[in-house]
Amino acid sequence: MALNLLGFALTIAAFYPGIMTLDARYMYNDIAKNFLGDWQSPAMTVLWAWIDPLAPGPASMFLFTAGLYWFAFTLIGLTLARYSAIALLLPFLALSPPAFLLVGIIWRDVLFAAVWLFAVALVFDHDARKLTARGAQGLALLLIMFGVLLRPNAAPAAPLLAVYALWPDRWSLKRALIAYLPSLLVVVALVPLVYYALLGATRQHPLHALFVFDLGGISHFTGENRFPAQWTAREHALIVGGCYQPDKWDHYWYIEPCRFVMQRLEGEKIFGTPLLFAAWVRAILDHPAAYLRHRTAFTANFLTGTNLVMWTQDIERPEMPVSADRALAQALLALHDGLRPTWLFKPATWLVLCLILCALAWRRRSCPLGACVIGLCGSAAVYVATYAVLGVASDYRYGYFAVLAALVGGVVLLTAGAARRWSSVAGKEA
C-alpha cells in the first residue's frame, strides 16, 4: 500500500495537472460548446463533463485516469501478496518508463488501458459464488463495454476479457469459443446504440479516415489514382508517388504538400459519403496485393518503428516543452528522449510478450492466476492486432494496453509458479 501510494504521489508530482494533447483540447472545447461528435469518443467527452467540476481543466481527467491506474495495480498487488512477495514488483513496474511515461497524458488510449486493467483487478482471483464477487463482475463488464466506447476497434478483444470477467476461476477454450461471436455482436451493436441513439452524437465519419489512408496506400503501390475526384497532373503525381507514408494518414489530412487530398474530398462532398466507401471497396477488390502491401508496411511501422511516445508540446506555450519549469517532468522528458528509439517503446515487444505469457500460462489455465494471464494478455494481443487492419496512425499509445497487460501478466505468472512450488513444499512438510 505504501509503495502504491508513493507511486501515485510521484505521478501527481511529475504530471499534475496533466498534459493536454490536441485531441484532448478538442474534446474539452466540445464540452464548453455542449457538442458531442464521434471523431473522438463521445463517451469520454460525457465522462469528462461529469467529473470536470471536481477539478476543472485537464486535472479532472488526469486524476481520474491516474487514480484508476494505481488503484488497479494496488488491487492486483494485494491479491498476489497472499501468494508471494513477488507482488512487490508491481509498484516498481507501474513506475517503469514504458508504462509510467504515459500516465499523465490526456489520451483516450491511456484511459482505455487503465479502465480495462481496473476491470481485471475487480474480478481477479475472486470466488464467483459470493455476492460481492457478482457485483464486481457486473462492474467489470460495464468497464469492458465502456472501453469499447472509448476505442471501438477494441470490440474483437472485448469478448475475451468478458469471458474472463464472468469466469475468473479458470479459462476454458470451449467456453470462450462459444461465447465469442454472441459477445462480439453485442459490443459491436453497443457503439452506435450509445453514440447516436443514447448520446445523440454528430456523425463526423472517423472510419472514413481509414478509407482515405487505404486508398492512398493502394494508389501508391499500384501507380493508379484510386481517389474518387478530379485531380490535376501535379496532384496525380503526388498521390501515386509523393504523398504516401506508412506511419499515418495525416499526410492526406493536414500535412503539406498533400493536404489538398482531404480539402478536395471535403470540398466536393465525398468524405463521409457512400461514394468514398464504394471507392475503397473497389480498390481493394481490384488490387488486393497492393492493399496487403500497404497494410503490411503500416503494421511493420506501427510495431517496430520509432514513433510518437509522449506528448511533449505545451498546448498553451507551443514554443516550450511541457512543464518546462518542473525538474521532475524535465527528467522524465530526458528519459523519454533517451529510451524512445529502444525496443522498450515498440508495440512489437509487448505484443510478443503477451503472446509468450499466454503460451506459458496455458498449462495453468485451470487456476485463477493462469486464467488472469490468458484473459488479460490474450485480449491485449487481439486489441493490438486490430490495428493491422484498422490503424491509421502508428503512435506508441495504441499499444499501451499491451504494455500494462504484459507487465501485470508477467508478475501474475511468476506468482503462479512460486505459489505452486511453495504449496508443494508446504504439503511435503505437513
Key structural traits:
430 residues, two-stranded parallel ribbon, mainly alpha, globular, 19 helices
Describe this structure in words.
The chain has 430 residues and is mainly α. It is built from 19 helices and two strands. Strands 1-2 form a two-stranded parallel sheet.
Number of strands: 2
Discrete helix count: 19
From the spread of the alpha carbons, the general shape counts as globular
Characterize the largest beta sheet: strand count, sense, and whether it forms a barrel: 2 strands, parallel
Oligomer, anyone? single chain
Structural class, please?
Answer: mainly alpha
Summarize the amount of helix as a percent range: 55-70%
Strand content: under 5%
What series of H and E elements makes up the topology? HEHHHHHEHHHHHHHHHHHHH
**Mean pLDDT, nearest integer?**
93
Alpha carbon gap, first and last residue: 32 Å
The rounded Rg comes to: 23 Å
Strand order of the largest sheet: 1-2
Q: Low-confidence stretches at least 5 residues in length (pLDDT < 50)?
A: 423-430
Which SSEs are present, and which pair or pack?
Elements: H1 2-15, E1 19-20, H2 22-32, H3 42-51, H4 58-80, H5 89-94, H6 97-100, E2 105-106, H7 108-123, H8 131-150, H9 158-166, H10 173-198, H11 207-222, H12 233-241, H13 260-267, H14 274-286, H15 288-304, H16 327-339, H17 347-361, H18 368-390, H19 400-429
Parallel strand pairs: 1-2
